[in-house]
Fold each of these.
Amino acid sequence: MSGSSGLAGVIGWPARHSLSPVLHRHWLNRHKIAGDFVSLPVRPADFGLIIRALPRMGFAGVNVTVPHKEAAFALAQSLDDDARACGAVNLLVFDGGTIRGANTDAQGFSASMEQSLGAGALRIGPVVVLGAGGAARAVLLALIRAGASEIRLLNRTRARAETLARLFEKAPIRVIDWSDRAQALSGAMLLVNTTSLGMAGQDPLDIPLDALPAAAAVADIVYRPLETDLLRAARARGLRTADGLGMLMHQAVPAFAAFYGVTPAVTPELRAPLEAALHG
Ligand code: ATR
């Protein structure tokens, strides 16, 4: 265990109903660890100050969420490969006086896809990725590492997709216009939505799935609502699906291991309280 007090948390702003405390507390109970995991709403201006204070308060580390992932990247004294590749940090570990930055999103996405769609879920081609933000970057990293043979990348702002594609120089990424999204699905084996479209309070994601083959799968990283219109449409067509809760649960596994020294499992028993919190 990195910190002797068994204390960790999630740092973000604005204060919102984070699922991370539900998730980590479930594992703490499951493993009978006498620790706690708290929500830390912190304004961007206070981020550095608070992070430097947390180790002195006995924190082993924190998960980092919107809008602090880039600030955490800048502040960390060391970075793992994925944090470097993503240009963002979603996990800070306080380790013997130093602050280590990591990014567990790509690993979380891979593990989630393998659990819900089977081993080799990312190795199949072609894959269509919607979006070019931070989440898309982690998804691309996971796909490239898994050996995806063809990635079609679409974003409303095409220039952002092109910038992202350039970051992964040798990868088989093709940028396609957002307006061609329906046709881009032709022959694709996997569709991944990394945009905020379809999220509660956001615009709907308007993409007809007709061109997807019957063997294709559809993944959404949005988990509010859990069943997005995209996933509902995919299920109605009989396609396999993976929801956004999977990535959230799996990205937390290495974080819990770093905070509390035990590698937890993603089980149906973990999903139940998260679904209850989402619906509550
Ligand atoms: P994150 O880091 O969580 O991925 P982000 O960087 O804000 O978040 O990215 C949000 C993604 O949703 C972007 O790909 C964004 O497209 P733009 O790059 O064109 O902004 C996409 N998005 C948000 N609202 C959208 C809309 N109404 N139509 C199409 N795409 C949208």
Amino acid sequence: VPPQGVHHIGIAVADLDEAVETYRKLFQAEVDHETTIADQGIRAAALQVGGETLVELVAATEADTPVGRFLAKRGPGMHHIAIEVADIRAELTRLAAAGVNLIDTEPRTGLFGLQVAFIHPESSHGVLYELVQLPDDDRGTHG
Ligand code: CO
């Protein structure tokens, strides 16, 4: 089964509150939800930009975390593109069999209750892709 399409775009930001204000100003975007995942060192906000597009702003709570290291190395900017799939386990199995370098070989719980797994940018021309599977009660809806 091919993916459903882009679920959200992930942007790494230095200051979450400031970035939310920027998106309000630029696109009259509204915050859909906001969360902190302490053990991953992430503070994030998902914003609805127009009717269809979800942008995930991700900030680091500590320097020594994946997003903190990304910010130190590359600065704020494009971080990942999330692709929605119907069955994330089946996709990971298919990709592993195809020799794709996976950061997560098993799905894990990501932001906002999504099941997520990342593909290594080495296998995707430098782009970090996140596969997401929506919780059962959200199937077929966005955001
Ligand atoms: Co994401």
